Amino acid sequence: MTIKLLAIGKTDNKQLQALIEDYQKRLGFYIKFDFEIIPDLKKVKNLSEDQQKQKEGELILAKLNPTDVLILLDENGKQYDSVGFSEYLQKHMNSGVKQVVFVIGGPYGFSDEVYNKANGKISLSKMTFSHQMIRLFMIEQLYRAFTILKNEPYHHR
Q1: Spacing of C-alpha 131 from chain mean position
Q2: Which residue range(s) make up the domain with 64?
Q3: Per-residue pLDDT tens for 71-122?
């Protein structure tokens, strides 16, 4: 199985980017992981929130394969603790899915088309975090999940 993380817009913070790269490298020891950035839209001042979501949604959907399991990071999604999230990933791996795609949307969320295509939604917290920070948190939680599944000491129960 491959895990892909899609995110809208690049990370400008070099320290944050270094941490993301560190966890990406660690995660690569456990599973094939792909982190893909969808470039920010240009000339968004002329677009309504709905138009922006629509255009971002088209870019997201264009990155998917027909067999992908699409999971949105969404404030209204299901929340897991780290052990529960590791079990969630294990279920996907056991199901024979080729690729699970997690998506971090743009500032206004997702278009209806993306919501309709999604196989699930998860929330990392009831708090709001920047789109830049969520990338790091998500990759770290993926790494943590695999250390839990392998009974490695990174996660203390």
Answers
A1: 10
A2: 2-40+49-69+77-96+105-149
A3: 999 999 999 999 999 999 999 999 999 999 999 998 889 999 999 999 999 9
Q: Is residue 155 part of a domain?
A: no
CB 128 within 8 Å of CB 75: yes
Using the predicted structure, report yes or no on whether residue 41 has a pLDDT greater than 90.
Answer: no
**Could you tell me which residues are annotated as the binding site?**
73, 105, 124-129
Nearest to 13 by CA among 133, 143, 137: 133
Residues within the annotated binding site for S-adenosyl-L-methionine?
Answer: 73, 105, 124-129
CA 43, 46, 50: angle at the middle one, nearest 5?
105
Residue among 51, 91, 41, 48 at smallest CA distance from 71: 91
Is residue 157 in a domain? Answer: no
Handedness of CA 26, 19, 3, 129 (dihedral sign): positive
Burial of 113 (0-12, 13-18, 19+ CB in 10 A): middle
How far apart are the C-alpha atoms of 62 and 20, rounded to whole Å? Answer: 24
Q: Is pLDDT above 70 for 8?
A: yes
Asked whether 51 and 21 are in contact (CB, 8 A), the reply is: no
Q: Both tokens of residue 53?
A: 């979501």
